[in-house]
Amino acid sequence: MRRATDAWVGRLDGRYSGRRLRKRRDRLCYRAELGYPHHDPRLKTEISGKRFERGPLDNSEILALAESALADSWRRMKRDECFRAKPVGYVNRPEDNLLSTVSLADIEKDYGGAAGHELEHKFCAPYSSAALVANCFGPFRKNGPIPSVAGANGLTLLRFEKRLPHGLRSEPPNLDVVIRGSDVLVAIESKCTEYLRGKRGEFKPAYDPLVEKMEAGWRAVFQIIREQPDHFGGLDAAQLVDRRVSQPK
After folding, report:
1. How many domains does the chain fold into?
2. Which residues contact 180 (CB under 8 A, 6 or more apart)?
3. What pTM was computed for the model?
4. What pLDDT is stored for residue 142 in this prediction?
């Protein structure tokens, strides 16, 4: 286990040296013995004899490090018995992934009826974007008033995993948060580590009839994605366009 740890820690020795590097290596070895996900296949590096192959980390390795760091941080805040043996880093129950200012009762109805079945599995990951947005906006479900969001005031109704129709025959998407006022609607899409996975933008031909109904800015983004699927890098801009189409005008 130590050799596997050293293999990829060796790639970071440009950032860590001397005592600092040794402390970093020892800490990673300790976490490896606990079964933390530093040593999944995404973190494999080549070893040539006794020398490490050095090079920049790719996105899959950065993603694994980010998810491990979030799991480590959450474990320090919670008790060890809150965590599952597998998948590593996941909490046992959805409520174990909530801050003290949010209760499961505040959000369960919204997530329980969502098409994504968030509470059953994905919500329990320490890097869950659903848990992230629930912890950010959950306190306003009962404590109110809802503060100004994106310059919108007078907000009174907040829902998680709200489904809005998009005019297509396919199943409409769930928006992570929808906040309404008397004459305004604010939609929020939550991302935690998803942008590190990278995703090519894509629109099926079924979206073509909706193009003329889009505002000029969103129509321009739509055309960019059609012509250059990788234009926005790790940002899933196609999903944002899809969510915007779902909002009532």
Report:
1. 3
2. 155, 156, 157, 158, 186
3. 0.71
4. 78
